[in-house]
Each structure stands twice: as C-alpha cells, then as structure tokens.
Amino acid sequence: MIEIPVLDINGSTIRSESLDPALLGGRVRHDLLKQAVVAYQASRRQGTAVTKGRGVVQGSSRKLYRQKGTGRSRAGNLRTPVRVGGGRTFAKITRDYSKTLPRKMRRLARNSAILAKAMSGTALILEGLKFEKPQTSAMAAILDATKTRRGALLATASEDANILKSLRNIPNMEMKLVADVNAYDVLRARHLVFTPEAFKSLVTDPEKAGASAEA
Description:
Elements: E1 2-7, E2 13-19, H1 30-44, H2 103-120, E3 123-126, H3 136-146, E4 152-156, H4 161-167, E5 173-177, H5 183-188, E6 191-194, H6 196-204, H7 206-209
Parallel strand pairs: 1-3, 3-6, 4-5, 4-6
Antiparallel strand pairs: 1-2
C-alpha cells in the first residue's frame, strides 16, 4: 500500500490515505507512458502548413529553349524549383499527425502516471479547498503552504468556478476533473493534487474516474 498524505490549506499533514497499487495496474509501465505522451503531442500538431510545389505554381510547362546550341546553360520550364518564382522542392502539404490509442491503453497509461506520482511522493490530497469568491492571492498562499507553487495539477470531482478562477492566473497550475485527466497532464506537472472527493472516486472506481481520459 502507498500512503498519500492529506494536507489542510495551511500545509499541515492531517492524516494519510492508503492507495492500493493494484487499482492502478500494479506497476508503472514506462513504455506505455512513452506511447501516450507521443500520441498526445502528435495529436496537438496542426499539420496545416502548405507551400507550392512545381505542379501548383502558375507558368507554362514548355521547355524555355532548346537543350544545346544556344550558349546558355540548359533550362527546363518556368516552374522548376531552381528558378525564381518556381515551385518549392519537397513542398509541404496538409497532413494529419494525430495518433490514437485504444481506450484501455489510454486509461492504463493514465493510471501508470498517477501511480508514478504516488510512488515518487509528489501526490497529495488537499482538504478544505473552498472559496466563496475568486481569490488568487489566497490560492497562492495555499500553494506556498503546501509547497506546490512550482507547478501542480489539481484534480477535482466536480466543476468549481471559484477555484478555477483563483488558480488560472498562477503560472504552471492547471485544474481538471479527475475523469478528464490524461497521462500527459499528470506527467508534465511537478505535483498531483487531489481533492478528497476526487481521490475517493479514483479509489472506489478507477474505471469510472478515467471514463473520458484521453492520451
């Protein structure tokens, strides 16, 4: 069992919660994490860059002059890449860089990423996080107290506009529903912070908690 510390908003450790590694696959699968990160980053590429090749630019396809006997260097048509105004060599075309992983692989990759954070001691549960109105300064003070100011992913069980607005202007901080967290989100954050409700949903039903997790 892995013990996950439970902290209050003042940074004091209240207790700890047990996490069974078997719920998250039992071990960290590094090769699967690599696939998930590559797939996620590839899917973010637009692939909309386009340049004109010799078959696209305007101009006659007739040879400009005969091959020999003119005293000039040999030349093809106006659209050749070696002439000014000609087409580009190896012109770029639109393409789809996206990669897909099966749902089970995406979910297992997310669980492996969470397990890696738990095993490294960079996962915690934050209790008492609630705001009556958006307060960025108060959120920053909480992050300083819990030593997560350098960057963290806050996983919640439900939407909370006040927490989101308090967090979104702080660099390197991100907030997501635990059901929407993917492996890339977890790995790129220095710390993984759960609300008690989010951690409970993960422990009681990890499949449901990762129902929409994407790579």
